[in-house]
C-alpha cells in the first residue's frame, strides 16, 4: 500500500509540477486587470472621474474626451456588484475623485458575474485585484478556468510571440476601429448580432434584481459619504437590438434608474439608449460602440459632468 | 460531487488514505467510514435527499430482518409488499408523478373532457432509480430465500450507499456486493493499479469522447431544422458516442474507484458497439440493469418458457419497462418499444443467442460478414437513440424524417460543425483512435486493461500521453447523462 501510494505520487509529480509551472507562467502574463489595479493603487495618479461598468464602458468611454482627468476602470462583463467592491476597496487611494460614471443597461440589474456563463472572469478579480471570492475555489487558479488548449495558446502567444493580454490604453479604454464595410453589410451584421445578444441579455428570471438594486443603493451611500456624484447612464445601442428587448425587463430597468436618481441627491441619470446621434457606423456590434461611437458617448458624458460642475 | 470534478479529485485521495492507513485494522470502522463518505458524496448535490436514501435503506434492512424471522407466507408477502410499495412509491412519486398527471390530462382532453391538473414542483433525487433497484434486489433475494438477511446495519447502509456506484450504477446485487462488506479487505496492489487504469480510461471516454460529442450532438439536435439529413445522421451518431462515452466512462470510473477500496463491481459495458445483432448489443449494454430486469421481471413473468406469444409479450414488457425506467417521457418508452421490435425477428427465428462470444475473438480484424453485421446493428441502435435524445416523440419523428429525405445526399461539409470546442477533423481523429483502442482491447473488461506495453517507461509514457490528451481535448464539462435517471 505504501509502495502503491509512493508510485502514484511519483507518477503524478511531473503532472503537478507542470500544472504549477503553467499556473505561475499564466499569472505572469500582463493583462488589463494587473494594469488597471496598478493605476488604482497608485496614489500619485490622480483622477476626478472614474468610469466603471462592463464592456459597454470598456469600449464606449474614452477618457481623452473628458475635461476632467478620467480613468476607465471597467472590464468586460463586470457587473454592478463587482463595481461596488472595486469602489469599496480602491477608492480610498483616490481622494481626488469627484464623479463615478456607471452604465445601467438592459441586463445590468438582472445579472451577476459570479452567477453567469462568464463567471470564469471572476478569477481575474481574485488573482489580480486581490478581491476575496470564497464561494468558488476555482477562482483562485488560472488553470482551472480555461481548458488546457486555451492555456497553451495563451502561453504560446506571450512567451513565444511576445503578445501580452493588455487590450486597453493607458487610460483604460479599449479601441475598436471603425469598420470599413459598407453601411448595408454593417447593418446586416448588427441585425444578426442583435438576435443573439438580445436573447443572451434577456434574463430568465429577476432573481438578481433585488440584490443588484440594493448594491446600487449601498454604492450611492458610500459615494455620498465621500462627496462623490454618481453619474448613471443607459448606454446607446443599435435599434435592431432595442427592438428585440423584453419590454418588462427594459421598463423595470429604466423605471428603477429614474426613481433611484430621485432617491439620492448625489445621483444623476441620463438615458442614451436610443439617442439619435448614434448612427449605424458608430457601432461595432448591436450593443457595443466603436471608437467613433465612444467619442460621441464620451463627449455627451463630459457635457453632463460639466453641467454638474457648473451647478456646484 | 461528480467524478470529473476538482472536489472529487481532492475527496478521493483523502478517503483512500484514511481508509487504508487509519481504518484498515477495523472492518466495522471501515464500513462506517464508507457510509459517512458516501453520504457526504451524495449530500454534495442536495443533502435533503439523504433522508430518502437512509429511509429506504432502513425499511429494507428491517424488512430483511423480519423476513428471516417468519415462515408465514402471508406475512412474508406483506413484508415484501411493504418494501415494494415504499421503494417504488418513492420512485413513482419523485420521477413519474408529473408524467402520469400529464398523461391523464392528455387522455381526458382527447375525449373532450377538460382537465387542468396541478403540477408539483418535484426535484428528482440524483440516482434514485439506481439505488432503489439495488435495495429492492436485496429484499427480493431475501424474500426468495436466495440470500441470508444481514444483521449488520452499517454493512447494509454501506451496500446501498457505496459512493462509487451510488448515483449511476452499476446496479449491484446484494448477493454479490453485500458479502464483500462483511469480509476483511486486504490492500491489493495489482487490483488498485488496475483500478487506476480503469479510472483513467473512463475519464478519457467521458472527457474526450462524450463531452466533445455532446457539443456536436446538441448543436444538431437543438437546431435540427437547419441541417440536411446527412448532418442529422451524423448528429445521431455523435449522440451515440456521447451516451456510450458518458455512461460507460462513468461505469469504468465507478468500478475502478471500487477496486481502490478492495471491492469488485460487475462489468456494466462490454464493447456494445461491436455487437453483431441486437440481442448481443443488449447483453453488452448496461449489463447490470438488463440482468436486473431479466432476474426480477423477465424470469418471474415466465421468461422464455411457455409459448411463443408469452415470450414475445415478456420481451416487450421488459423493453418497455426498461424504457420507462430511464425517464418519465414517451420518448423513452418508444425507444424501448423500438428495441423490442428489433429483437423480435431474432426471437422468432431463435437466433437471439447466436452471437455470444467476442467478435473476431482469435483474429485481429473482423471478416466482411462481421463488419456488415456490426454496422447494421450500430445503425439500428443509432436510429433508436434518436428517440432517447429527442425532446419529444414528434421531434424524434421529424428528425428521422429529415434523415430519410433527399437532403441525406447533401455533403456534410465542415462548416456545419463550426464553432465547437474541437474542429470536426480533430473530433473524427479522436473517435477513430478511440475505436481502434476499444477494438484492440475488446477481449478485456475495459479497453486498456491488458495492453502489453512492456517496459515501465513505455507504460508511463502511454498513460502520460492519455492524460495529456484528456487535458488537451477536454470538452466543456457536461453532466453525466444517467444522473437524471
Automatic annotation (TrEMBL), chain A:
It comes from the Bacteria. SUPFAM superfamilies: SGNH hydrolase (SSF52266). This is SGNH/GDSL hydrolase family protein. It comes from Flammeovirga agarivorans.
TrEMBL record, chain B:
Signal peptide: none annotated. GO terms for molecular function: acyltransferase activity. One of its GO terms (cellular component) is plasma membrane. Keywords: Acyltransferase, Cell membrane, Membrane, Transferase, Transmembrane, Transmembrane helix. Pfam families: MBOAT. GO terms for biological process: alginic acid biosynthetic process. It comes from the Bacteria. The keyword Transferase applies. It is found in: Cell membrane. The chain crosses the membrane at residues 6-22, 51-67, 79-101, 121-140, 315-338, 424-441, 453-475. The keyword Cell membrane applies. It is a multi-pass membrane protein. Coiled coil: none annotated. This is MBOAT family protein. It comes from Flammeovirga agarivorans. The lineage of its organism: Bacteria, Pseudomonadati, Bacteroidota, Cytophagia, Cytophagales.
